[in-house]
Design goal:
The chain contains 23 helices and 25 strands. Helix 4 packs parallel to helix 5.
Length: 634
């Protein structure tokens, strides 16, 4: 997997954090997560404190007592026994009904008043259609008797239904605190370890000592009552032990540990987000991504399980693994620019292939254009807008010059890279696909300047500044005689240069060559190519139709431009030159044939000059055309 253009961190977090929050809140693996953490938390079982006592009223008790009045009188006996034994608090987990008070109601009301109105609680609910005896309800604290399970039907907290305003039974049993807040359960507390007393044993005056400093719950067993509680791992449980487990959980500060577990889970979730984004942003191959994701998910699950065991409350490990995986996939999707792909495709003006190609180019740091029919610029990235001064139009960009250039490139070069100057910058245009007009511009200004400089040095004689032999060869190679082009070639060889160079040294000789080259340039056209082939040999290429008369005049000008004495470092020297030339004819198809004729003519000219030499005042050889030679050239 290749690296993508850099994306600002806040933009990545803007996607990853809401995704992590959604996974944490809507955990699709919550049932598995809860089952795993429930088993872990219930593994080290803790017994309920001896401080708590459950007085159970069974189905047999109800049958034996038969009438409601007798049943309530029996409950009143338990209340009196608990008072006599010195119990701290007592909860009657019954929903009492009936409009008219019977003897049992009066007995129970009296027992509650004797025990202490603030030390007895009765389970209640918000049902308005249920008639209740007012006496003992007004004599006791009312706690919420209705309970709300989790989505899986299990009870992991003592929680009241929405709208309830009675006190939490577990909280009241633990501390006497009258508050409606929910309290989580400590699942390490086994409900089966609650000390249980039968109804008859609780009523017996001889057993009152068993209630010394105890907190008592009197309740029906789950067989006798239609109300049942299903706890995780432990299964169906009587309501009395459930409330006492809740009270013991309050004693063990389960609420505080749940807060700690929540913050620990949030910290681990953020760590998983960071790890997932890092893995997705920097790992290169799909194999390493997969392996790293599995390993990191395993670490996240282990961290969640360890945090759960330490805190004593659930820190969902599979949710952490999902957050890590989701963050990793988010980073990979952003690297692949999949969001741009979807957004671009939904715009409706691109084909799926164009949308896929554009998503990988939209954020690059080079100008990129996607063109449609007729040169319409359908997409332009930020660099292209800046470089070419494009303006926005509905569903397109406007940039006539660059659009014409791109279409001209397609028409003449196809996918071949071409270069063009825009605003002082040289761009190289490359087409990325043969199926669509996706153009990428690369800034080659510096490379062009460097190449041009190297090219100039490659074909230039460093001493005289005119072309060298390679430059002259390239120039004659550009002549197309087969296409009807005309040209003339001149070869020049200096007379007397060797004697001056040997006598006065190479420095004088080099300066003499520079002066000679300048004089040759002064008598030729600007478009003519002058080259120093080596030593004291020069050549000139003239392109275009040139007559023999113009060629002879050029020879005369070249030879006469050296008539004037040349002064170098206090020396006055004079050299001559032998010039030979050849003009192309209609029969010539190879430029080298013209070059060979010019070379032969130069040697012929040099031979003729030697027939009539004369010495000048400076001692340099100077040669002139004899009359016969002019006639021959004419």
């Amino acid at each position: 997997m290749s690296a993508s253009p850099k994306r600002p961190l806040w933009k990545t977090l803007r996607v990853a954090l809401p995704l992590a929050l959604a996974i944490w809140c809507l955990n699709p693996l919550v049932r598995v997560d809860r089952a795993v953490t429930d088993l872990l938390l219930a593994r080290g079982q803790v017994a309920v404190s001896d401080r708590y006592v459950f007085v159970r009223m069974t189905q047999e008790d109800l049958v034996r007592l038969e009438h409601v009045s007798a049943q309530r009188s029996a409950i009143a006996d338990v209340v009196d026994s608990a008072r006599a034994g010195g119990a701290q608090r007592l909860l009657l987990d019954f929903i009492f009904s009936g409009e008219e008070a019977n003897q049992g109601d009066r007995d129970l009301e009296g027992a509650i008043r004797r025990f202490g109105e603030d030390r007895v609680a009765i389970a209640s609910n918000n049902r308005q259609d249920l008639p209740r005896p007012k006496g003992f309800y007004e004599s006791a604290i009312q706690v919420e008797g209705a309970l709300t399970p989790d989505v899986d039907g299990r009870f992991r907290s003592v929680a009241s239904p929405a709208g309830a305003h009675f006190a939490n039974a577990a909280l009241w049993l633990s501390s006497g605190n009258i508050a409606a807040e929910s309290t989580p359960l400590d699942l390490s507390i086994a409900p089966g370890s609650v000390r249980t007393v039968t109804l008859d044993a609780a009523r017996n005056p001889e057993n009152v000592a068993q209630f010394k400093d105890k907190v008592v719950v009197v309740s029906l067993t789950r067989v006798a009552s239609r109300a049942r509680v299903a706890m995780p791992v432990y299964g169906l449980t009587d309501r009395g032990p459930f409330f006492l487990v809740g009270a013991q959980s309050v004693d063990r500060e389960a609420s505080a540990r749940k807060v700690i577990a929540g913050w620990t889970g949030a910290g681990l979730a953020l760590a998983c987000v960071a790890a997932g984004l890092w893995l997705g942003a920097f790992l290169r191959t799909a194999w390493t991504l997969t392996a790293s994701c599995l390993a990191a998910s395993g670490v996240a699950i282990a961290a969640g399980l360890l945090a759960t065991e330490i805190a004593g409350q659930a820190v969902y490990p599979l949710a952490l693994a999902l957050i890590l995986t989701g963050s990793l996939l988010t980073a990979v999707a952003l690297r692949l620019q999949l969001h741009e792909l979807v957004k671009t495709f939904l715009a409706g003006d691109l084909s799926p292939e164009e949308a896929w190609a554009w998503r990988s180019q939209a954020q690059v740091d080079q100008p990129v254009l996607l063109l449609g029919v007729g040169g319409v610029i359908k997409r332009a990235n930020a660099e292209a807008v800046r470089a070419f001064g494009l303006t926005r139009a509905p569903r397109a960009w406007i940039g006539p010059e660059v659009s014409r250039y791109c279409m001209s490139s397609l028409a003449h070069g196809g996918l071949r890279g071409v270069q063009k100057d825009f605003g002082g910058t040289t761009w190289r245009l490359e087409w990325l696909s043969g199926d669509m007009a996706l153009a990428v511009f690369r800034d080659v200004t510096d490379q062009t300047v460097l190449v041009d400089d190297l090219e100039r040095k490659l074909v230039t004689d460093p001493l005289t500044g005119v072309r060298n032999r390679l430059g002259f060869d390239r120039a004659i190679g550009e002549v197309r005689l087969g296409a009807g082009e005309k040209c003339g070639v001149f070869f020049l060889d200096l007379n007397g240069f060797k004697q001056i160079n040997d006598t006065h040294g190479h420095a004088v000789g080099d300066e003499l060559l520079r002066v000679v080259a300048k004089r040759f340039s002064s008598v030729t056209r600007s478009q003519d190519v002058i080259a120093r082939l080596g030593g004291d040999e020069f050549a000139i290429l003239t392109r275009g139709d040139i007559t023999s008369l113009k060629a002879v005049r050029t020879v005369d000008n070249l030879e006469s431009c050296l008539d004037e004495v040349i002064r170098l470092n206090g020396l006055a020297v004079k050299v001559g030159v032998a010039v030979g030339f050849a003009l192309s004819t209609e029969e010539d198809t190879d430029i080298m044939a013209v070059v060979e004729r010019a070379d032969q003519d130069m040697y012929e000219r040099k031979r003729i000059q030697k027939l009539s030499p004369r010495r000048n005042a400076q001692g340099a050889d100077h040669f002139v055309y004899p009359a016969s030679a002019d006639g021959m050239r004419a």
